[in-house]
Amino acid sequence: MHLTEETSTADLAALSTPKRASKERRRELERLASLCTDRETSVTVTLDEDRALAQPDKGGHEEAYEILIPTEKYEQHGTDLPQGLWDRSLQVAFLFHELGHVYYSDFDRFGDCLKGVGGRWRDLFRMVYNTVEDGVIETQVANEFNVTGDFIVLNEVLANRADRRHRQYVELFDLETVDGEPVQSYTVFEALAVGLLDRGFVDSGRFDAIVDPGNERRVVHNGRRDALVDLIPVMDDYVTEMLSDPSGTKRVTRAREFFESARATFESLPPLQSNRLQTAPVRPADARARQDWGVKPADKLPDERAANERVTGDQRDERTTQSGTGQRAEVGSTDDHRPPGSLEDETVRRVARQRTRAQASRGTTGRSPLEQEARRLLGIVDDDTTDLEKVVVVDPVEEGDMERWTAAVDRSRKLQQDLATQLRRERRPRDTGGYRAGRLDGRRLVAANRGTQRVFTRRESGTMKDYSCLVVLDRSGSMDGDPIRTAETATAQLVHALFEVGVDVSVLSVWEGTPCLEVPFGARPADHVDRLMTERADWGTPLSTAVAVSRKRIDRGEGSYPFVVVVTDGEPDDPTRYRSELEKCTFPVFGVYIGADSGSHTEFFDHITYADADSLERTLQRLVRTLFSTEA
């Protein structure tokens, strides 16, 4: 994120949203699940790379379930939400979707019916049940909780992902196109899945396009559109009854009846039509045979009239397809519990705006250290006395180098012990002489005989200084390779050791010519490994800008006794300006030089040490011996 004068409060607020694969996100989702379930039901949340499903708790406890939530990154389409807020919205939608299955789906009965289905037809039965049951439980849960918007976004994302992958398949195998656009072909099985889904919670418009004889870009494989059209009345009746039946057990029975009708059609078609050909399933296939699965009535579904209007009513005639033009139908009223209706781009954008406003309007409570630090740095950018155009809050990489971080932490124990020793010495009580009253100092008896009265000592407590440290990490192009790995290791050892002895630490890097926030004050450095241990290195060395930002930040910051440590390998890009900024600093600035000759660049720091990969620990130990002895 770039902190500029145009940065919005919603963007800043998004920094307090835990990352989608973090422990904090898992705990947040688990707390949310506990608030939305009754006392008899226990739900644990597990983050999984790409699966979403609910299953009985492995401990075998009655009414205990485990919900898996995916951590993979889903792309936005037509929206521009902050990434953290976007990820959270989708994971909340997945959570409530699976909670719907926990309460309202009868997977016991589903398992019994599945046993009676021949192997060739199992995928068809699973699809016709799971696809419509998804729409049922989303409708029920959306009428219980304020998650309609989250479900709309989730359905839009999954429909868009399916479409994008379908087009990629056509392009990959150089299949048919119309006016340069890929022709998306569906087997009857694939088209039936889309049709049932579009009759459920929201309508993507894809099925209307598939059965439209004038649409050349969505077609039924081998021209078997007639078989699909013949199934439409049966599909409408099936989904209408499913959407209005509160009994999970009866819904499985109704799915079995529809399956038998559909199978009769498929038996008259070539076997290829009863399989997937160009599409891959993107929705969670979470209908599974389970034992002792509790099921409760879905008492907030629409009645049969409202469900029928949703599936076959006038609003279907008013819809347009994604590839067509004109106005879409408005989202349906919730008074009769019917699903939202069509899935239109404007609906998704409206949901996104509501999420952004809600995030931006929340109070100061719950702000993460990253958001708090970004707000302080934005204040520096907005300051008229600075010519700073932006500061970057570094986006985390998918996975920081935890192995190097762990090794650095392990090797920093001696450094941590040295820091703790320095602080103990500083805080240790001392006997101070030269007083008129107190305890007699035997070493001053001769002076007493001469008439001197200041021969007593007093016990004084040590100083409890509030220290803070800002580490500036040079990520210029000259640091690429071994130097940046050594510099990151040095930074990791230093910030971890300082943090463990109670010193507030932050890391501000210089990357691509811009100051970049990597570790904020008030945070655990271990929580930001995916920003720090990345081996990024590019552009020049504007250390003068980094020192200027550091000075402004520390002047407003934590710690009554601040100091700065610069980890670099070269000379500032503008030595004159750098010296000018250094002279304005009211705190010590230390330098750790990577690979430089001993004795060079001394004029740029109050104290300087030199390091390479082999001497790093010794260098840092020499540095910490000076940190608390210079009135830092």
TrEMBL record:
<feature type="compositionally biased region" description="Polar residues">
    <location>
        <begin position="1"/>
        <end position="10"/>
    </location>
</feature>
<protein>
    <submittedName>
        <fullName>VWA domain-containing protein</fullName>
    </submittedName>
</protein>
<feature type="region of interest" description="Disordered">
    <location>
        <begin position="1"/>
        <end position="26"/>
    </location>
</feature>
<dbReference type="Pfam" id="PF13519">
    <property type="entry name" value="VWA_2"/>
</dbReference>
<feature type="domain" description="VWFA">
    <location>
        <begin position="466"/>
        <end position="632"/>
    </location>
</feature>
<dbReference type="InterPro" id="IPR002035">
    <property type="entry name" value="VWF_A"/>
</dbReference>
<dbReference type="InterPro" id="IPR036465">
    <property type="entry name" value="vWFA_dom_sf"/>
</dbReference>
<feature type="compositionally biased region" description="Basic and acidic residues">
    <location>
        <begin position="285"/>
        <end position="320"/>
    </location>
</feature>
<feature type="region of interest" description="Disordered">
    <location>
        <begin position="270"/>
        <end position="371"/>
    </location>
</feature>
<feature type="compositionally biased region" description="Low complexity">
    <location>
        <begin position="357"/>
        <end position="367"/>
    </location>
</feature>
